[in-house]
Structure formats: C-alpha cells, structure tokens
Amino acid sequence: MIRVYNDSHGPLLESSGTVRRPAGSFSFDELFTAADPGALVRQIWASGLPATLPAAPSAPIGTQEVWAAGVTYLRSRTARMEESKDAGGGTFYDKVYQADRPELFFKGTPHRVAGPGSTVRIRRDSKWNVPEPELTLAINSAGRIFGYTVGNDMSSRDIEGENPLYLPQAKVYDRSTGLGPCLLVTDEPLPLTTTIALEIRRGDAAVFSGSTQISQIKRKFAELAEFLFRDNSFPRGSYLMTGTGIVPPDAFTLQSGDEIRITIEPIGTLINTVA
Q1: Is the pLDDT of residue 71 over 90?
Q2: What are phi and psi of 110, to 5 degrees?
Q3: Going by C-beta distance under 8 Å and a sequence separation of 6 or more, which residues neighbour residue 204?
Q4: What is the pLDDT of residues 113-124, one digit of tens each?
Q5: How many whole angstroms from its chain centre is CA 136?
Q6: Which of 76, 147, 233, 256: CA 20 to 30 A from 40?
C-alpha cells in the first residue's frame, strides 16, 4: 500500500516510511482517471525522487466531486429517526436502512473541502452541529474502488431534523467536508476490523469520544460505488463517504474552536478545528 499526500507542489508518495516525489508531472486527476491506479502509483513511487512529508499537507483531492452515503449504520438510522420524529419523517430513515437502494447525496466540490490542519465550519443558521467520521472511498473514472481516505461529513442535525428535504442545506456549504491526511492506495480491501475513532477536544479536555468498526456498515462498498455510478458519470473519478456509526448524544453540539480528530488506521488521523 502507498499513501499519497498533497502539498503546494503536488502529490508525494510514501510507503514503508520512505517518501518520494514523482520525477515528472503527476496529479490526483491522473490518478483518478488511470485504469489501474495501484499499478500507476507503484511505478511512480519506484522512479520517484527522495522527499519529506509536508508538515501541513493539503486535502488529497484534484477536481473530484465528493458524495456521501447515509443511514448505512444502525446507529445512524436510530439518530436520524430521533432527530426528525417531530417532523413526521422518522420512518423515512428506517425504510432507507432496509431498502435495496441506498441513500446517496452530493456533499461537495474541491473548493468546499478542508484539508488536514485547516478549519471546518458550522452553519450560522444552525444550533445543533456534529462531525460525522466516515471511511471514504476513492473511486476512479471507471467506477473502480482503488483507495481510501478519512472523511468528516459536517452536519447540521437541527436543519435535517426539521424536514428531510432540507438535507442539502444541512450537509452542503463552504468547508462542510474534511478529507485527509492522505489517500491510501491499495489493491486489498480493508479488514472488517478496521476501526474508525472520533475525539472532539474543547480546550485541554476531550468532550466526546467514540469508535466503531467498518464491519458495522450494512452495505457493501462495491454496492455503494455501483449505485453512485449508475446512470451517472465522473470523468475525473469521485470520493464517496460511506456513512457514520458514531453519533454524539443529542445534548452535544460543536462550538467554535473545537478540535475534531478522526483516526482510521492504516490511513492516519484527520485533524480539523471548527472555525
């Protein structure tokens, strides 16, 4: 497996502690349009020049769209039903969880994405906001899953709970998406024991922490990718968040200055601060 980081000069490749910069021009768009992204990064890493990892990498993205899947964990289903019960939409989420067709929604374009070490935002017209830590699939232009990154699907729970039709406003706004710290390119699927861990720090204290494993996801990753690419085209590939199984209690909401730490090994830790 090879980790692809991003800095102001473009991608950097790391494997087994050795970092290399491509000898020639190379971009994330080239990676996402390659027929065999794994073979391409192995070739580029083998011929690359010695380098060091950037202290503050950028988000590992070119011109890809970011999409997301919802209600893929039982915990998410329960939380969505609770937050929308007063609006009469509670049963919608149970039906989605049980349905053959997954919930898929557009999440963001590259200019809305926050990289590691940068700030994410909460909406000024929302009073109940949470991060949603998610394993995120890298899918090439042919619909093939070739890698993974850490995703943060920032969400306004009160807006979505008021009416499920408000989902785009609850999910899509400037810096509502966190990605990083790198893109892990691998030909092997991640083991089902892979853990997603979330910690939210306020000042010097942790105000929330939780974890889950990807074995708890109800749907297959290949299924989610197939539905995303069904009657839809992504000329430069796409990222797809796979849903969250970690939901803070209803009394919790993010505040300005909170630090969000999402860890998925062997990818790494994505750290963002709330603006």
Answers
A1: no
A2: -55, -35
A3: none
A4: 999 999 999 999
A5: 4
A6: 233
Mean pLDDT of 37-47: 97
Q: Is the pLDDT of residue 94 over 80?
A: no
Neighbouring-strand partners of residue 19: 14
Q: Which CATH number fits domain 65-274: 3.30.470.20, 3.90.850.10, 3.60.15.10, 3.40.50.720?
A: 3.90.850.10
**DSSP per residue, 94-155:** HHHHHSSSPEEEEEE-GGGEE-TTSEE---TT-S-EE--EEEEEEE-TTS-EEEEEEEEE-E
Q: Which two tokens stand for residue 2?
A: 């090879």
Per-residue pLDDT tens over the stretch 15-39: 999 999 999 999 999 999 999 999 9
Domain locations in the chain as residue ranges: 2-50, 65-274
pTM, full prediction = 0.94
Confidence of residue 102 (pLDDT cuts 50, 70, 90): very high
How far, in Å, CA of 32 to CA of 246, rounded? 29
| Cα–Cα distance for residue pair 130/26, rounded to 1 Å | 36
The string of DSSP codes covering 189-234 is PPPTT-EEEEEEEETTEEEEEEEEEGGG-SS-HHHHHHHHHTT---
Report how far residue 120's alpha carbon sits from residue 256's, in angstroms, rounded to the nearest whole number.
Answer: 10
